Amino acid sequence: MPIKKDREYRNIGEFNTSENYMVEGYASTFEPYKLFEQDGVDYYEQIDRHAFDDADMTDVVFLRDHTGRVLARTKNGAVELSIDDHGLHQRTNLGLTGASREMYEDIATGNYQQMSFSFVVADDRYDRNTHTRHIEKISKVFDVSAVSFPANPYTEIGVSARDYFNGEIEAEKAERLECERREKARKALMLKVKIMRGEHGN
Questions:
Q1: Which residues pair with 181 in a beta bridge?
Q2: Which residues contact 176 (CB under 8 A, 6 or more apart)?
Q3: In a domain, 126, yes or no
């Protein structure tokens, strides 16, 4: 299964393991987090407390690096998702198949330490003062994955987020250039007025 460019991917949480092949943790939290830095500016993102209220989470699967064989899923009860004041919590039974048990061993031994999830954003807004994207509504959650490396906004897995911020960065630059143009025009006009007043004074 290739990475879908219409989906967004975030790795925020870490796994906790327990006996009987259970793994759990928060796939997403409601705290702001830094996505990347560009030209000395930090860009952030925050998922709203009610972003998952109407999200379709009827068939969420557990994967390795967002690809390959399905290791568990909500439809057979192996993946349990819940929302609390901290974020999106997942609890998964990885003991149903040989492949899922291998995934559990990789998590338990530390080969896979981070958790990621893929989703589609339905509504968001951008705060230019804090350079923060606020995700206010998620329409669907596709998977929860154990990932070997963090999702990077500069790579294919982060292309949707990167495209979003590129648009905002360009808009900020255009606004800044327009402000600079207006300031130069204002100063030029003030200088012209001073010169004219000087001429009239003579």
A1: none
A2: none
A3: yes
Half-sphere exposure of 137 (CA within 13 A, CB side): 4
The number of beta carbons lying within 10 Å of the beta carbon of residue 172 is 14
Q: Which pTM was predicted?
A: 0.76
| Tens-digit pLDDT profile for residues 172-193 | 777 777 787 888 888 888 888 8
Q: What is the domain extent for residue 29?
A: 8-177
Average pLDDT, the chain: 86
d(CA 197, CA 194): 5
What per-residue confidence (pLDDT) applies to 63? 95
pLDDT of 77 higher than 50 = yes
Domain count, the chain: 1
Q: Assess if residue 198 is contained within a domain.
A: no
At 97-116, the pLDDT tens digits run: 999 999 999 999 999 988 88
Contact 25, 11 (CB under 8 A): no
Q: Is 201 within a domain?
A: no
d(CA 4, CA 89): 23
Q: Determine phi and psi for 181, rounding to 5 degrees.
A: -65, -45
Burial class (CB in 10 A: 0-12, 13-18, 19+), 184: exposed
